[in-house]
Design goal:
280 residues, alpha/beta
Length: 280
């Protein structure tokens, strides 16, 4: 079956950043990409995924657009990107029976049981370069949140690579190819929370490059990643000191093999689940 991915985002950058990831998770279908970056909402097609990233205000035009699908009894799913702070207006959820979104939110899932939470995935052009894993642990990113503590705890690792940036998309930061090289050379990748959520592109990029993610439990003491990934082989500590202990005492060669197999299986199962969700 052909599936229409209708991009209702604002910029080409929003399309390109995770384009390869989105193509992969929908690869059970023959995909047709349709770009409506000006949000004209003039494509109403059966078997569609409406890809949106909305603001804080109600979007009546989007709701009217969704109503056209409902009135014509078409098969469609909404893919809601981003929204880490849970500040975007989700009034449109109540008008659709199929919502795929980033970032797990228990209150949203309780309110809209139809929600399917999708991992953020990886940025386009990230790839495993299959290099010798000469770096024990890496971190590339801004110093914020609890990252000062994280860097202090892991500073004693001899073969480490820390590359600190000032902002998201720092012009002095690593490009995708350089970042791929770091991840592909690393046994472990530190995956702290962003401003709010523990889920991150970094975690999926580490997995894509065969590096073991290292993170911590959420504020409430729960394993946040279990809510999205189910049973997983990531290294998760109660805090960063515990994560350091778990990292330095595990059999890293066995863990690397486990991670690589798990990630391949997870992505295949994810594609199957999405297809079942969309076709159901």
């Amino acid at each position: 079956m052909e599936l229409n991915l209708i991009w209702l985002v604002k910029t080409q950058l929003e399309v390109q950043f995770s384009f390869e990831w989105i193509c992969e998770v929908f690869s059970s279908y023959e995909v047709n990409h349709i770009y409506d970056l000006e949000n004209k909402y003039d494509n109403v097609l059966n078997n569609s995924v409406l890809i949106v990233c909305v603001g804080k205000s109600p979007n009546e035009r989007l709701i009217d657009y969704i109503h056209q699908y409902n009135q014509k009894n078409l098969n469609y799913t909404i893919l809601h990107l981003s929204d880490e702070a849970f500040e975007q207006n989700i009034d449109f959820y109540q008008h659709s029976n199929k919502i795929i979104r980033n970032y797990y939110n228990k209150s949203y899932v309780d309110r809209y049981s139809k929600i399917f939470t999708l991992p953020l995935g990886y940025q386009t052009r990230i790839k495993n370069l299959n290099l010798d894993r000469s770096i024990d642990v890496n971190f590339v990113g801004q110093v914020k949140s609890d990252r000062h503590e994280m860097l202090s705890v892991f500073s004693s690792v001899e073969k480490k690579y820390f590359y600190l940036t000032r902002m998201w998309g720092d012009p002095n930061g690593l490009n995708v190819e350089q970042f791929s090289q770091v991840l592909s050379s690393s046994k472990y990748t530190l995956c702290p929370r962003g401003w709010i959520s523990l889920d991150s592109f970094r975690l999926n990029e580490a997995l894509e490059c065969g590096s073991i993610p290292v993170s911590i439990l959420d504020y409430d003491g729960s394993d946040y990643f279990y809510k999205i990934y189910g049973e997983h082989p990531f290294i998760i500590g109660k805090d960063w000191q515990d994560a350091y202990h778990r990292m330095t005492t595990c059999d890293r060669d066995l863990k690397l093999l486990e991670i690589n197999k798990w990630w391949i299986d997870f992505k295949q199962n994810l594609k199957n689940k999405i297809k079942k969700y969309i076709d159901g």
